[in-house]
Specification:
This protein is an alpha/beta fold. The chain contains ten helices and ten strands. The strands form three sheets. Strands 1-2-3-4 form a four-stranded mixed beta sheet. Strands 8-7-9-10 form a four-stranded parallel beta sheet, sandwiched between helices. A two-stranded parallel sheet has the order 5-6. A hairpin with a 7-residue loop joins strand 1 and strand 2. Helix 5 runs parallel beside helix 7.
């Protein structure tokens, strides 16, 4: 079973829609979604994203009542989410309502997709938008029921591609080791001489290759973010190692320095 949520605002606890996708023995997918009244503000960005506003949820159940209805079903199944956000949002909503966080079994279809199609890292990535295009998935993005169905379809495609049953597909694999921090001086004659770049996350090439390329165009490569840093290159992030955050410590530090008025930053996502 796959689960997806939509939120009313930047607060992860502000769940306004829960969607489920149940895969039957013949691989047919049945979807279900319900609106939830988060009892909080709705941001314009979120409304534009999923089309749900305060008027839609005025008569909807609050999260504790919605969870009571769904919990008997959720506890019987292994849940698939696309990225770790849905688990985080469910936990945040429980904490916000003062209820115990249920002990549910979760797997991430992003990690499953990375295992099935590693060549797409740095080449479109493993987000639902790119997977919709590359796997020819048919769904309406940013509807909780539809996105849950999309996550289920990703898993079904991965099962077929890897020729692995679901039980083996969700089995944790060894965590990828990350390269040691790299420092390299830039070519003083390069077009970007004087620039200082820091890398974070998994890139579409090895960290050494990226550093060498940057150095050739004049950029000095440093292992950590400082006031001298001018560029931050952000690759795919493994949410399992970010201690509940959605961005790396380097990325968060860069944004904090931007907010504090440090000029000259350029953040690039690859």
């Amino acid at each position: 079973m796959a689960l997806d949520v939509e939120t009313a605002c930047s607060d992860a606890a502000s769940i306004c829609q829960i969607g489920l996708a149940c895969v039957e023995p013949d691989n047919q997918i049945q979807t279900f979604s319900m609106l939830v009244n988060p009892g909080t503000r709705f941001d314009a960005f979120n409304i534009q994203l999923h089309g749900i506003g305060p008027d839609h949820v005025v008569n909807a159940s609050r999260f504790p009542d919605a969870l009571d209805v769904l919990l008997p079903l959720l506890t019987r199944h292994h849940l698939i989410q696309h990225s770790n956000f849905d688990k985080q949002a469910m936990s945040a909503a429980c904490r916000s309502c003062g209820i115990d966080i249920p002990d549910l079994r979760w797997s991430d279809s992003v990690q499953i997709a990375r295992r099935a199609w590693p060549e797409w890292k740095g080449n479109g990535g493993h987000g639902l938008a790119n997977l919709k295009r590359t796997l020819n998935l048919q769904f309406h993005h940013h509807d909780a029921g539809e996105d849950a169905r999309a996550a289920a379809m990703v898993v079904l495609h991965a099962e077929h591609h890897l020729r692995l049953p679901f039980e083996k597909l969700i089995k944790p694999v060894g965590r990828k080791s990350y390269a040691a921090p790299i420092a390299m001086d830039g070519d003083p004659k390069g077009a970007l001489a004087g620039s200082v770049v820091v890398f974070t996350g998994a890139l579409g090439m090895s960290r050494n290759e990226a550093a060498e390329f940057a150095a050739q165009v004049g950029m000095s490569v440093k292992p950590g973010v400082t006031k001298q840093t001018t560029h931050l290159v952000v690759g795919d992030q493994d949410l399992k190692v970010l201690a509940g955050h959605t961005k790396s410590s380097k990325h968060r530090k860069a944004e904090d320095m931007q907010s504090a008025g440090h000029w000259g930053w350029s953040v690039r996502h690859v």
